[in-house]
Write a structure and sequence with these properties.
Blueprint lengths: L5 H21 L2 H32 L8 H10 L5 H21 L3 H22 L3 H19 L3 H10 L1 E4 L2 E4 H30 L6 H26 L4 H18 L1 H16 L7 E4 L4 E7 L3 E5 L5 E5 L2 H4 L2 E3 L6 E10 L8 H10 L12 E7 L4 E10 L8 H15 L21
Antiparallel strand pairs: 1-2, 3-4, 3-7, 4-5, 5-6, 8-10, 9-10
Helix pairs in contact: 2-4, 2-5, 4-5, 5-6, 8-9, 9-11, 13-14
Amino acid sequence: MQELPDFAKTLLEMMRPFAETAMQWLASPAAWSQFALLAAAFVLAVILTRRLRPGIAKLLTPPQGNEGIIAQARLFALGLLPLLMPLVAYGLTAIGEEFTRSLFGSGAVIAFGKRVFLFIAVRALARDTLTDPFLRLLGRYVLIPVAALYTIGALDPIMLRLSETMIELGNIRFSVLSLIRGLIAGSLLFWLGGWSNRQSAEYIKKQEVLRPATRQLAVKAAEILIFGAAFLLLMSIMGIDLTAIAVLGGALGVGIGLGLQQIAANFVSGVILLIEGQTTVGDYVELDGGETGTIVKMTARACVLETFDGKWIVVPNDHFITTRVVNYSDQGSANRYDACFSVSYDTDINRVPAIIEAAVAALPFVLTKPDAPDCELRGFGDSGIDFAVEYWVSGIDDGKNKYQSKVLFAIWNALKDAGIEIPYPHRVVEIKGAVPSL
């Protein structure tokens, strides 16, 4: 015994009371009767579970295609069925404990058995019921060990030892138990905050009566409220004085605000954009700086534009407030484009507008409202007479050669069918003096 390390000695000292209790139970007839009651409770729980489980599963299973709140609650309850047997055994054991205490005046063995059934229920919850990866991790490494310590009666002494072990960081002093409790509570609160944020975002985005910008603003407001409440609740759980946090936050806010003015300006600009709704996700915009693209994401700091070639451009929100912004779309509004071409000087130009307008109007994507295709004479060039046809389409010319290419093909084919020549540059070379002999 003297040769063992200190850790082993401490562990043996902690295990000695459990060993003594086990020996007393093995030598006690009353303890053996309680073991018999535990076995009977287990067998009866197994029989009841086999008979009750099919009916409960049938009752809880929602109708096919039902996805409402009641259906979700029934599916959640259905996932708890693995806990049925240990919980039934726990209830039967609790009844047996009352009986043995009233009859024999003691029930330590059956009370231990009741804790064992509770541990089995906790293990089934962590292994079979929890599906979220974070909750499964928390159940495996936190919930099951705590339940095991509670089962053998070692939870209270360990918690007392952890509460007496203090950690000092300067003037701050807290116990190891407070730190562990804060870590677990913080993890649960922010996981719950993330889950609540996802659920609220999905619900808000389904409200099509609201404008897209209003829905986006509501999602951001819900996110701030949820995580703000989680942070305040965590501070309260850890016993941190919120008054001190407020004073410290005010002092830091002044210093940080001076260095983060641009970020604050972008945040306020983002809120203004969401409230006004003049620019929202899905719009095709062009900024004064030359950035063009479709808005695919709006964050608290910036908007993300996706260009025709798949690149993403991050544009600070204040650019949409302080500079000129051209918005080409409003969720599928009509837009006008033009296609330029030239014809030979030998052409009867009076025939050209009718030929081109008819050819472009025959394209399926060209609109007749607000205006039908309009062919205009633009000027007299060096090699030919310049024309342009204006046409309207529903949406944006999504990159080079989507609408424009098909329109130019139609113009080429129409001119060729009409026998109209499309000119190419001609140059006259004048040679002064005698022509050199070959």
